[in-house]
Write a structure and sequence with these properties.
The protein is mainly beta. The chain is about 10% helix and about 40% strand. The strands form three sheets. Strands 1-2-3-4-5-6-7 form a seven-stranded antiparallel beta sheet, with no helix packed on it. Strand 5 and strand 6 form a beta hairpin.
Length: about 260
């Protein structure tokens, strides 16, 4: 006589096999330690509740570590875990980080870039919240007006003549040069300007009174990154007698 189990599709024995297979697959999923291959749709991936995202090389070197910092030294002042970012090279040496160091009394996170030796080569100023902390940028100083006037480069030529010159590697898209200039004879006039790799830029008129002249910003867009560029401060006498004198006050490249 047929039993109730025999009324099931495939019979009771088949159902038992399916249940056993399902239990085995569940155990394998629970025991799985990694996801070998996956695709993420438009919703993306979100790590929440203090979780971490990490990536290791086959040699077990950390390359990416984003999330809670497990070292208690980096905990916030209230004892909670700090969330930070650490990116490393394939050999495990630091490349980029973003974290604070509360034991020094600062809760403001700052990003840093490192060279191959682990030295910080570029970092923001976390204390003020604006600008760079590294690298230290040079500040140009110029001879003071007065007694130093006699030492300023000068020319009485009526055609543009080089007074200052230099060569830079192009890294930013524009350049600015500030000079202090004057004619040394009352009533005389002159012109001062910047020449970039033999191309003269618009000049400015100079009179007898000492004044500051900002030459630029002028574009360096025609030059390749890290290409050498010649920079020249040039001047000429336009009317009257005497010479035009100029002292380089500052020079810098800037963003676009």
């Amino acid at each position: 006589m047929p039993t109730a189990g025999d009324q099931l599709p495939g019979g009771a024995t088949d159902l038992a096999r399916r249940l056993a297979a399902l239990e085995r697959e569940v155990r394998e999923l629970r025991a799985a330690r990694r996801l070998e291959n996956a695709s993420v749709g438009a919703g993306g991936v979100r790590v929440v509740d203090g979780g971490r995202f990490a990536m290791d090389t086959p040699a077990k070197k950390h390359m990416v570590d984003i999330g809670a910092i497990t070292n208690d030294d980096y905990n916030h002042g209230d004892g909670t875990r700090q969330q930070g970012i650490f990116l490393r090279r394939e050999d495990g040496s630091p490349m980029l980080s973003c974290f604070s160091y509360p034991p020094f009394g600062s809760e403001a996170q700052a990003w840093k870039f490192y060279d191959n030796s682990g030295s910080v080569v570029l970092a923001e100023d976390a204390n003020s919240g604006a600008g760079l902390a590294r690298p230290y940028l040079p500040v140009a100083l110029a001879p003071a007006y007065g007694g130093a006037w006699d030492y300023w480069p000068r020319t009485s030529a009526t055609t543009m003549t080089e007074l200052w010159g230099g060569r830079i590697y192009k890294q930013q898209p524009r350049i600015v040069v500030v000079v202090r200039a004057s004619m040394d004879t009352s009533g005389a006039t002159g012109s001062i300007g910047l020449k970039i790799s033999d191309v003269s830029q618009p000049s400015q008129s100079v009179g007898f009174a000492v004044g500051y002249y900002t030459l630029g910003p002028y574009s360096l867009a025609n030059f390749e990154h890290m290409q050498q560029v010649d920079i020249t401060v040039e001047a000429k006498r336009d009317s009257g007698t005497g010479t035009i004198r100029a002292s380089l006050f500052s020079a810098y490249t800037i963003q676009s």
